[in-house]
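Supplementary Methods. Inverse-folding protocol.

Structures were first reduced to a discrete structure-token string of length 329. This string, shown here, constituted the complete conditioning input.
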């Protein structure tokens, strides 16, 4: 099968209908700010407000991406992003405890590229910066090929530290070809160095078992990608279990070119990742954990809780000992 923009689009289902003045979702999370070390055995835990913004669809068409489902077919209207942040922060203020000393971070994730002016109009930057001025760190997502000097301009409008999250995805060549990401690891490296030269920190997304990668080498390849992300100066790497759901992934699965990773594979990834990469925070993304294979109603929660605790503590905890019969067969 030849992967093209057209072959990906033609297999998609419908988008969700969205109001451009409302965010898709707002959630509260906690994140470690650093890896524990002998000198700093208990790094601070940041309280993170994650805002999933409604905006224009990404210009790229990555094979594994299902973020388009929650995007608009038109450019993001001017004023919509600041308005959505207002809605998000109002809802959050109702739930927040006061007087916290924890670092306050905010993720402004727009299912696309923050520095594409179709997705976030530059005219809105000052209004965005004003709204997030009380946060110590602002995290946005962006394709490595869309990193340019405007990122530094936006960073200079912020009170807090800017972090840009970029999909490295994998350094495994056969999978890179299938992902249609229109990017190489060298592009990622260049973008990461450019960000750091502008005093912007880097977060990496790494895929566990993308299409074109045999399950038997998936763990090793995550390790290689983590090492590369670390060499590029990533402060944090988040491992994502590759999922289906956009049509083309199901077709690749039927042709034997994609198999979704199991919950066991994700658990092993974090166990191994935390043994290495001492200078980088490494977490696993637990969104959709319950849909992975090798898990049952009985063990979902203890296993999710263990990974949540490992994400936070950056240390390996004993495995779930429930005798529920789940296995990685
Ligand atoms: S660049 Fe990111 S948002 Fe755009 S299609 Fe690829 S994975 Fe999806
Ligand atoms: Zn089970």
């Amino acid at each position: 099968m030849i992967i093209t923009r057209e072959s990906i689009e033609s297999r998609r289902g419908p988008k969700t209908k969205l109001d451009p003045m409302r965010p898709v979702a707002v959630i509260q999370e906690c994140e470690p700010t650093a890896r524990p070390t002998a000198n700093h055995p208990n790094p601070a835990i940041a309280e993170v407000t994650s805002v999933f913004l409604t905006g224009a669809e990404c210009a790229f068409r990555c094979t594994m991406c299902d973020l388009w489902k929650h995007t608009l077919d038109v450019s993001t209207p001017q004023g919509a992003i600041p308005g959505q942040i207002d809605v998000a922060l109002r809802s959050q203020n109702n739930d927040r405890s006061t007087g916290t000393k924890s670092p306050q971070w905010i993720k402004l994730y727009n299912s696309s590229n923050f520095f594409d002016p179709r997705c976030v109009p530059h005219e809105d930057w000052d209004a965005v910066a004003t709204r997030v001025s009380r946060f110590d760190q602002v995290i946005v997502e962006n394709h490595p090929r869309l990193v340019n000097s405007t990122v530094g301009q936006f960073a200079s409008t912020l009170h807090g530290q800017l972090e840009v999250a970029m999909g490295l995805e994998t350094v495994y060549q056969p999978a890179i070809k299938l992902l249609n990401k229109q990017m190489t690891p060298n592009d990622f490296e260049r973008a990461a160095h450019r960000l750091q030269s502008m005093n912007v920190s880097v977060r990496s997304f790494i895929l566990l078992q993308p299409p074109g990668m045999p399950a038997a080498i998936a763990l090793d390849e995550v390790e290689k990608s983590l090492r590369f992300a670390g060499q590029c100066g990533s402060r944090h790497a988040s491992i994502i279990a590759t999922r289906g759901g956009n049509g083309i992934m199901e077709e690749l699965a039927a042709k034997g070119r994609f198999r979704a990773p199991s919950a066991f594979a994700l658990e092993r990834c974090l166990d191994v990742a935390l043994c290495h990469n001492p200078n980088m925070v490494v977490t696993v993304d637990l969104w959709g954990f319950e849909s992975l294979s090798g898990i049952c109603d009985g063990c979902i929660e203890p296993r999710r809780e263990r990974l949540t605790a490992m994400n936070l503590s950056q240390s390996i905890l004993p495995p779930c000992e429930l005798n529920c019969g789940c296995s990685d067969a």
